[in-house]
Write a structure and sequence with these properties.
Blueprint: H1 7-23, H2 26-33, H3 41-51, H4 69-82, H5 88-102, H6 105-116, E1 122-125, H7 131-134, E2 154-159, E3 162-173, E4 180-187, E5 194-200, E6 208-212, E7 222-234, H8 242-248, H9 250-278, E8 280-281, E9 284-285, H10 290-316, H11 319-344, H12 355-369, H13 372-383, E10 386-388, E11 394-396
Parallel strand pairs: 1-4
Antiparallel strand pairs: 2-3, 3-7, 4-5, 5-7, 6-7, 8-9, 10-11
Helix pairs in contact: 1-4, 4-9, 4-10, 5-6, 5-9, 9-10, 9-11, 9-12, 10-11, 11-12, 11-13
Length: 397
Amino acid sequence: MDGALSHEQEAMRSAMRRFLAEHCGPAEVRRAVASPAGHDEAVWRRLAAEFGLPGLAIAPQYGGVGCGSVELALVCEEAGRALLPSPLTATVAIAAPVVASLGTPEQRARLLPLLAAGELTGAFVLPNGSLPEALALTGPNDGDWAGGGRAGGIQARRHDGGWRLYGEAAQVLDGHCAGLLLVAARHGGYTKGRTLLFLVRPEHPGRVRRTRATSLDETRPQSRVELRDADAELLGPEGADVPRVLAGLAGPIASVVAAEAVGTADGALQRTVEYVRVREQFGRPVGSFQAVRHRLAELHVAVREARSAAYYAAWSGRPDVAGLALAAALETASRVTGEAIQLHGGIGVTWEHPVQLYFKRAASDELLFGPVNRLRARAAETAGVFAAGAGGEAVVL
């Protein structure tokens, strides 16, 4: 792998950074998250028109730009640095690749152009689990994340040649405003059931109820989605192996989420470096003290390591590499934002200061996309790092 970015990739990153610096400052972020959509819809439309952001990784035949995971990781890192509230993660990083990989030719032709143009946003509805579970990043995706046939999940049943869904999911990214819900549901009962994915249009409030929830990180709005015999369309052919398809998407999705977490860490670090240059103690800037310099240097190295891992994961597409990169990014974001709060002193925990938004984003991401120890354990298992010895104990190869 050549670690240097191409001229086009550097230009893309620079343009994205300039745009977000102009339109996504702390004041703009606060206004956006307070809106009914949870993001600035005008900014999203401009990102679609000027950068082709929603269709960045969608094939040109469907109206997309046709770039790869590396380019998507680049712009997601910039979005994470600015804490951009947008449908980027839920729609571009998750929903679009799922439709592209699992959808029938007719479904791809119908939905992907709308997603690429930014006219349609999506949300992935997982009733009983997390995204890493569904992608087999923290364990085998055996369908428990879709309810496993037990109460509390989402159940699917046939109805007049179509499908009806019943159940609910408590934490759905962008679930309150997405125009398309990708719903994981179980069909066939507890013992012989299997996990399927369905397309649900939330136009019927009586059958699809969506409630925006109070969340730790307001820049990633979450919602409760309740389905009451909601009309649904099966995504892909009926015989599709949904867990296998999702596991195949683990590499690109996890690497993009990792890159966004790296951006969060880097944004918090940059703000901290700027602050310690002007904050004074004992008549000197705090940044002039050797202990502070050492702490910042260690954080800088940690961010660079996490960035390298995220981009290598995006380039390779390997699920085990992506799982490790995501673990490193989440851990780094948590460490850097925690240090940022401390180095800002008392002002860092006030509502008015933006550094607390970075801390909340890092904490929320670890809950949504972790935990770190399970990501690493699964990556080691997938890569065959451990094998059973003669005595039945795990030994390192």
